[in-house]
Amino acid sequence: MMRVGMSNPPYLLRHLDDFAAILRHPNVYEFVHIPIQSGSNRILNAMQREYTLEEFYECVHRIRSVVPNVTLATDIICAFPGEGEAEWRETMELCDHVRFPVLNITRFYPRRNTPAASMKQIPTEVAKRRTSELTEFFNSYRTLDHMVGEVHSVALLETAHDKHHLVGHTKAYVQVLVDPQEARLGETVTVVIMSTTKYSVVGRVLRRRCERLLAKSTMTARQINWRSLSVVACFVSAFAAATAVAIRKVHAGRR
């Protein structure tokens, strides 16, 4: 699987339809990182960004219309020089509107010999407050809870930071944690999502063929009690196998 790197709105807008089509390719993750930095056009202009808030929204809305499950990541710089309360509120409104699953929050620090370094700086206490406010807001919502019960095929290619779970990713590049007792590193497995956190989901491996077949049936994953699935599905499978053997014996006896 391939994951597309960071792309800015001016370049995306030139090829937006083609880019959305690429994300739908089976070998490309439905993930895109579009840095916005601020929700205020005045601040974007001060940053010398070559795009507007409206152009950013166009990228987001058009990509989501074609790839509904896309994972959107962005970056926000808090307390850029000249950012007043009105501009900061615009940034908060942007984040509230889009509800980014991935949000990289940075407090502005001046770099030597850059235009921003010579501008009047925002007081440190204000910068800290804005950074904390956005961080608290980001932690106040969850974007993965709807995935409970979904079935995904994931390649387990790394070990989690907890040094225990194996890690795979869904098509939308959502991190899936799998117990190493259920699979081996390097395997591609079918999992059902059992629980979620802010940043990842926990999957249970569907090893038995009857489980995988049931997952692909007309029943939706959320209609299945996955904790009792192994017992029920495999009982049905065993019953069907026993019935087939009995039928063959009956036919053999009639010959």
TrEMBL record:
Which PROSITE patterns does the UniProt entry name for this protein? RADICAL_SAM, TRAM
Q: Which GO terms describe its molecular function?
A: 4 iron, 4 sulfur cluster binding; metal ion binding; tRNA (N(6)-L-threonylcarbamoyladenosine(37)-C(2))-methylthiotransferase activity
Per the database record, which ranges form the TRAM domain? Answer: 145-207
Domain Radical SAM core residue range list:
1-145
| EC number(s) on file | 2.8.4.5
Q: Which InterPro entries match?
A: Elp3/MiaA/NifB-like_rSAM (IPR006638), rSAM (IPR007197), rSAM_horseshoe (IPR023404), rSAM_sf (IPR058240), TRAM_dom (IPR002792)
Q: Provide the function of this protein.
A: Catalyzes the methylthiolation of N6-threonylcarbamoyladenosine (t(6)A), leading to the formation of 2-methylthio-N6-threonylcarbamoyladenosine (ms(2)t(6)A) at position 37 in tRNAs that read codons beginning with adenine.
**What is the name attached to this protein's record?**
tRNA (N(6)-L-threonylcarbamoyladenosine(37)-C(2))-methylthiotransferase
Tell me which species this is from.
Trypanosoma cruzi Dm28c
